[in-house]
Design brief:
This protein is α/β, with parallel strands linked by helices. It is built from 7 helices and 6 strands; from the N terminus they run H-E-E-E-H-E-H-E-E-H-H-H-H. It has a 6-stranded mixed beta sheet with strand order 3-2-1-4-5-6. Helix 3 links the parallel strand 4 and strand 5. The protein is globular and about 40 Å long. The protein starts with a helix and ends with a helix.
């Protein structure tokens, strides 16, 4: 099995986790995973903090990974539905930009479902200063869903911070239709059992 196929399998599992936690008002619209060859993959989603800021999925999954296993190894791979944020000053985010966090944690590879052109207008070239290689999914269902998720940021802008429940209620069917049609409920049940985050 090639690394790309394996990364896309994990990306699909992250998307399934996001779908299965979509109803939770404290969950955002981004999912991530860390794959370290020494351990089982760890998954996470963006979460709203008590201060009403967003703990981005990359930071959340990294904290979960470190709680379970310690520091990720040099061959660890970060997988995200949306490429890491780069904006230094963000009033809605808890902590520093995710690209900077990944650089500090010495990630060399990031695999994503969609490049956020707001964070990286020049695509993967904008991530080179952070020291990691960015790869993009070629899985058609993952790509479609991640593109739709990215589009929610463009469409709703700052409303995502104040009106996430309504936005998610209005968009759930359109976001996950391709996944539901192809993969059905079996994968949903498997991910729900693994994550403990079922909504």
């Amino acid at each position: 099995m090639s690394n790309q196929i394996h990364a896309d399998d994990v990306l699909l599992q992250a998307i399934l986790l996001l779908r299965d936690t979509w109803e939770n008002p404290e969950v955002g619209i981004v999912a991530a995973a860390i794959v370290d060859p020494r351990f089982e993959p760890v998954f996470g989603v963006s979460l709203r903090t008590p201060s009403r800021r967003w703990l981005h999925a990359e930071r959340n999954v990294l904290q979960e990974f470190e709680n379970r296993y310690g520091v990720p190894g040099q061959n660890a791979l970060m997988i995200t539905t949306l490429s890491p944020c780069t904006k230094v000053n963000s009033l809605s985010r808890a902590g520093k930009p995710c690209a900077q966090l990944l650089m500090e944690k010495r990630f060399r590879r990031v695999h994503t479902g969609c490049i956020d052109l707001c964070a990286a207008p020049r695509g993967d070239m904008d991530y080179r200063p952070y020291g990691f290689e960015l790869s993009l999914t070629d899985h058609p269902v993952c790509k479609r869903i991640c593109d739709i998720l990215c589009g929610l940021f463009s469409c709703y802008g700052q409303r995502i911070n104040s009106d996430i429940e309504r936005i998610k209620a209005d968009t759930r069917d359109s976001v996950f239709a391709a996944l539901d049609n192809i993969y059905g409920r079996l994968e949903r049940d498997v991910v729900k059992k693994r994550s403990g985050l079922g909504g």
